[in-house]
Amino acid sequence: MRVLLINPPIRLDDVPRNFPTGLGIIAAVVRKAGYSVAVMDINGHRWDKDAVSTMLKESDADVVGISGLVTTFAYQRDFLIPEIHVNVPGAVVIVGGGIGSSIPDIMLKSGADFVVRGEGEETIVELLNYLRDEKEEKGTTMDIGGVSYRYNGAIVHNQRRTPILDLDAVPFPAYDFFDMEGTYFKNTVVGPLGLRDHSIIASRGCTHRCEYCFDLFDHRYRIRSVGNVFGEINFLMGTYGVEHFSFQDDTMTVKKRWMNEFCDMYEKCEYDFRWSCTSRTDALDGPTFKRMRECGCTSVSFGIESGSQRILDSMNKKVKVEVAENALFDARSAGLRTPVSFIHGWPGETVDDMNATVHFCIRNKIPLQALMYATPFPGTKLYTKSKSLIVEKFGSEEAYLEKVGNCIDFLINLTGYSDEVLQQQRSKMIMTVLDAVPVPTPEEVDARNLELYGKVLYEKMNSIEVSDEFKKHRKEHGFNE
Ligand code: B12
Ligand code: SF4
Predict the structure, then answer these.
(1) Is 75 exposed, middle or buried (0-12, 13-18, 19+ CB in 10 A)?
(2) CB contact at 8 A, 375 and 404
(3) d(CA 425, CA 368)
(4) Which atom number of ligand 1 is nearest to the Cα of residue 123?
(5) What's the Cα-to-Cα distance from 80 to each of 45, 85, 97, 110, rounded to whole Å?
């Protein structure tokens, strides 16, 4: 049975940057299970619709698996899925990833034959085996966990799957299916300017339940062993000469012991690489930040979200403003960069709350570039609470989902202010902070780079011309240099 896996396009106004880790892993497990695999990385190659149609016509796939964030909804419903049905007649269409997991019913109504919810490794193999052995007709009852499908005109959601407890059993992404050199090493994620940066994930799931966040991993925090992560680092450095790793975990730092073990291994290993990660502000302490810094960490990103305790509580963030300030202080004292992001326009947010965020930034000398609009994503509490507003404003959930994209773009107003006022408030907040927080001088940035990356990498960074587009991209991620 031949399986074609597709990565649909996102952020067409920017170059492709993010390696699709989930799809890469699915490609690895499907190949390991003995199926013939091909990958169509539409996002990576930016093929236009005509090229995609031609490639689909030439494909002889029996099964087409599609990944993607929910922001690919319009592309999948209006183009990709119909095109597969027309050009690859008889192929079974399976949708997974953020989109399948958060809007399974809508994707089944949009032409998918099956949806895989949550982690896909075990589910896809069981589903492919089922289709291969197809003793019954396609679409009849089946009980594979994590699968949704249509049966007798109704939608059936099989039981959720138990999360994969041993993440070391998951293979590394099948990098060989992707254009690593021409795409992913050419356009780095948020890694340092000019270095060979790659994204990697050590853990899955999060212990918290912030109302705006979608946890595809069922809130079960699991982390790969340090040895397994270093195995992948070793492979990526050896094969592709990666110099910097951007850990994309929701929060890599839940277990302090794990982080210390990681640092022990860093000290022992023969490589010299740098890395960055994300964390919650309540997850780490001064000595751990210091150790991380000594062991190659260059920056820790935090989602601060608001300087108003009232709003943090309403988001169920479970963090105190003072704790966030202390974490920023500790991480910076350890010599780390601390890019942060905030949310604007939370339901019930007032001018006082916005001012609290502005003052938080000024007090802590934070640039306010990464100020995202509160945007409800399906599968989150914020979405459930906003559903009636969404339907009222857009006519239907689908009409809203067609438009969701980057949260930096205004889409929906969840506050009592008018749309115009809300957008003006955002600009005003950014400008007020910009006026009050000194931007580091080029000399200061330079000195920091030398200190963080060491002479060899620093010289390499300085020898490369960096595009304005990439500088803008970094600013949107809260990097103030
Ligand atoms: C890296 C990342 C990105 C990258 C792109 C990732 C990519 N795949 O191309 C970038 C930076 C571009 C990005 C952008 C955004 N992101 Co993002 N991102 C992530 C992040 C941090 C890691 C993704 C990852 O690699 N996960 C690890 C892998 C192993 O998991 P996975 O990809 O989900 O794959 C598993 C399953 O989904 C499934 N699977 C995946 N593909 C397939 C395919 C098939 C056929 C099958 C069967 C199964 C399957 O199996 C995989 C293995 O178990 C996640 C959070 C997280 N921890 O996952 C958020 C996350 C995916 N992002 C999210 C959001 C909201 C956004 C933004 C809207 C945020 C913003 N600030 O604007 C933008 C959207 C931009 C746009 N215009 O489209 C949401 C998802 C929303 C949704 N329902 O899709 C997440 C979950 C964050 C969150 N907690 O809310 N993101
Ligand atoms: S925002 Fe961060 S801390 Fe909150 S639930 Fe999502 S991943 Fe966890």
Answers:
(1) buried
(2) yes
(3) 13
(4) 47
(5) 16, 9, 15, 10
**In 358-471, at which residue ranges do the beta strands (DSSP E only) sit?**
371-373
User: Could you give the residue ranges of the DSSP H alpha helices within 141-285?
Assistant: 226-240, 256-268
The ligand whose atoms approach the alpha carbon of 279 most closely is 2
The rounded Å distance from CA 478 to ligand 2 centre is 18
Exposure string for 356-373, b = 16+ CB within 10 A, e = fewer: bbbebbbebebbbbbbbb
Q: Which residue has the tokens 């989109």?
A: 99
Nearest CA owner, ligand 2 atom 7: 250
What are 279's two structure tokens? Answer: 């964390």
User: Per residue in 361-419, pLDDT tens?
Assistant: 999 999 998 999 999 999 999 999 999 999 999 999 999 999 999 999 999 999 999 99
Instruction: Name the nearest CA neighbour of 116 among 80, 68, 176.
Output: 68
Q: Which of 216, 249, 372, 402 to mutate to test the pocket of ligand 1 (most atoms within 8 A of CB)?
A: 216
206 lines ligand 2 (CB under 6 A): yes
- For 95, 182, 198, 409, 472, the CA distances from 17, given in Å and listed in that order, are 22, 11, 9, 19, 14
Q: Which of the given ranges, 192-206, 266-280, 399-413, has the highest pLDDT on average?
A: 399-413
Alpha-carbon distances, residue 262 vs 225, 454, 462 (angstroms):
9, 20, 29
Concatenated DSSP letters for 24-40? HHHHHHHHHTT-EEEEE
CB distance 167 to 119 below 8 Å: no
d(CA 248, CA 254): 14
Domains in the chain, please, with CATH? 2-157 (3.40.50.280), 188-374+414-476 (3.80.30.20)
**Quick check: CB of 250 below 6 Å from ligand 2?**
yes
Residue 228 has pLDDT above 60, yes or no: yes
Q: Which amino acid is at 234?
A: N
**What is the rounded radius of gyration, in angstroms, for the C-alpha atoms of the chain?**
23
The full DSSP string for 54-97 is HHHHH---SEEEE---GGGHHHIIIIIHHHHHHHSTTPEEEE-H
* Structure-token pair, residue 142: 């089946």
Query: Is any ligand 2 atom within 6 A of the Cβ of residue 319?
Result: no
pLDDT in tens, 106-122: 999 999 999 999 999 99
Q: How far is the CA of 103 from the centre of ligand 2 (A)?
A: 20
pTM: 0.96
Please say if the pLDDT value at position 252 is more than 90.
no
Q: Among all chains, which residue has been given the structure tokens 């291969």? A: 132
Q: How far is the CA of 322 from the centre of ligand 1 (A)?
A: 30
